[in-house]
Amino acid sequence: MTSSQSPAQVSGAAPVWADALARLAADQARVRAGGGAKAQARQHERGRLTARERVQRLVDAGTVFDELMTFAGWEMYGEVGGCPGGGTVTGIGQIHGRPWMIVANDATVKAGAFFPITAKKVIRAQTIALENHLPVVYLVDSAGVYLPMQDEIFPDQDDFGRVFYLNARMSAKGIPQIAAIMGNCVAGGAYLPVMCDTLIMTEGSGLYLAGPALVRAAIGQVVDSEELGGAAMHAGIAGTVDYREPDDDAALARVRSLADLYAQGEVAPWARRRAEVRRAPERDLTELVGFDGSRTYDVRDLITSMTDGGEFHEFKAEYGETLVCGFARLGGYPVGFVANQRTVIKKKLKAGGEPGLRTRIEVGGVIYGDSADKAARFILDANQAGVPLVFLSDVTGFMVGRDSEQEGIIRRGAKLVNAVSNSVVPKITVITGGSFGAGNYAMNGKAYSPRFLFAWPSAKYAVMSGNAAAKTLLDIQLAALKRAGHEPDDEELQALFEQVKAKYAAELDPRYAAARLWVDEIIPPNDTRDRLIRALEACAQNPVQEEFKVGVFQV
Questions:
Q1: Rounded distance, CA 541 to CA 264, Å?
Q2: Alpha helices (H) in 399-485, listed in sequence order
Q3: Cα 511 from Cα 464, distance rounded (Å)
């Protein structure tokens, strides 16, 4: 059902990678258990499937369901028992050969109630669907807003109400939406399925703005669930439901049949240039890229390990070498790569007053002024050609210091950020290692609207690297203690440093980022090529490309 690495690939990896991939698989299994075996059994006792069983029966047999935001809510809301997966299952699956975004409430987690992260996860899934013109299926089984946290779910621009806003926006753009109510659908959540093109409802489900208990409390009316909002009432009296089905299997079969009837729109212009797919060179990426970032590697080897036939047309190969840019094909699609080089580079410099050339050592993962210039220009070229961009991010940040400042690093970095911000071709980011500070911005981080953002288990996501941040935070805490009249001894100072470092290390973990939806999914390295190809297939569903403008462009 989901894409994953084979045991052979895991066992063949370096020991640190093998441990990391085993932990990733175990953590994914823990999330996918939802509310646990007892909650799943209760769902079955009601004659209903679990969310993952529904998704599995909905997608084409033998195809991959690319789950997104698996770790939403990871280790959050511990005081109320947690919210595994954010109480929803989201991802892209094939239905009659066409990619659909699927959003399924997990009723085994707090009866499918919406936590703050649940709303954000559904909104992100809808945003991906809107940007890529992906049709959507909603499998609804939710008790509505989790009331103890209503103030964090209900009122803001990107809270619960945004779900229905996006519902309406997608409908206006002609993006198909099908909803199947397969359990509870109450309160504000009742608007989502009713705003879709087509509404299916199973026997025993309930659709109402207020349930029987709330109706009795509010207006004193005593009414049972079926009369208030059952499938028969909505199908025969209210006329809200388009199709009434006896059970989950019948409802899912109806969804599949209706999905097969929708007209297929045009694909994006760049996707019409898709060539015959050629195999990539077989290489275990965990042998190329070290887990902890301490080992240098040539990012061109990483790129050619993923591209069709290992082919790569590098742009300005001898200039601005800490960023590698160039064109290739991926799954037959034309793409442009922007990638952080991780080798140590001996850089030739212009002659000063003395004769001949001077040199300096440039550190891989750092963006220098000439690298920023090159990447900005390459992004212009990719937009001119109408070719999607793939960013491979393993970045420490921009170069600092006197020489870099005098070379105009701020001005040149701003130019690159401008180009990334205003790029109109699809952008996909894979974080393979560090994603620190302003380097995250230059390499198309979450704030820059990537169509998809993936991370390897080795990803580290923060404003600065761990040791530097821990020392800075320690200095801040130490100054506060001294102002309060307390001078810590060496032992207390070391304990405080370890505490600060451990906290920051936990926040560097990609699960921490994935829990908060800063990345869309954590993927094994050897799944990257296949995952990118299917992401490009999703992006190809949107044929519209905006006009490319950069505004005031620093030179």
A1: 9
A2: 402-406, 409-422, 437-442, 466-483
A3: 17
Q: Is 413 helix (H, G, I), strand (E, B) or coil?
A: helix
Chain segment 309-365, per-residue pLDDT in tens: 999 999 999 999 999 999 999 999 999 999 999 998 888 777 665 555 678 888 889
Other CB atoms within a 10 A radius of the CB of residue 502 amount to 12
Partnered with residue 265 across adjacent β-strands are none
Torsion of CA 283, 284, 288, 292, to 10 degrees: 160
Q: What is the CA radius of gyration of the chain?
A: 26
Helix (DSSP H) and strand (DSSP E) numbers for the chain: 22, 20
Residues 81, 154, 131, 423, CA torsion sign: negative
Per-residue tokens: 158: 């990107």
Q: Can you say how many angstroms the Cα of residue 495 is from the centroid of all Cα atoms in its chain?
A: 36
Cα 416 to Cα 421: distance, rounded to the nearest angstrom: 9
Q: What does residue 94 show for φ and ψ, rounded to 5 degrees?
A: -85, 130
CA 447 to CA 450: how far, in whole Å?
8
**List of residues 6+ apart from 398 with CB closer than 8 A:** 366, 367, 368, 372, 404, 409, 413, 437, 438, 439, 442
Q: What is the rounded distance in angstroms from the CA atom of residue 550 to the CA atom of residue 555?
A: 12
**How, if at all, do strands 427-436 and 452-455 pair?**
parallel
CA distances from 344 to 296, 368, 408, 439 (A): 8, 13, 22, 18
Tokens of 3: 């894409």
Would you call 70 helix, strand, or coil by DSSP? coil
Q: Give me the helices (H) in 230-354, please.
A: 231-233, 248-259, 285-288, 299-304
- pTM value is 0.92
496 phi and psi angles, rounded to 5 deg: -65, -40
| Two structure tokens written together for 59 | 């997608």
Residue 496: the pLDDT is 75
Examine the pLDDT at 523 and tell me if it is beyond 90: yes
Angle at 456 between CA 127 and CA 26, to 5 degrees: 100
- CA–CA gap between residue 101 and residue 266 (Å, rounded): 18
Pull the structure tokens for residue 399: 């170069």
Residue with tokens 């999330």: 31
List the Cα angle 284/289/291 in 5-degree steps. Answer: 110
CA distance 543 to 265: 8
CA distances from 86 to 73, 76, 90, 421, 522 (A): 5, 9, 10, 29, 15
With the CA atoms of 300, 302, 307 and 313 taken in that order, what torsion angle do they form, in degrees rounded to the nearest 10?
-10
DSSP, collapsed to helix, strand or coil, labels residue 35 as: coil
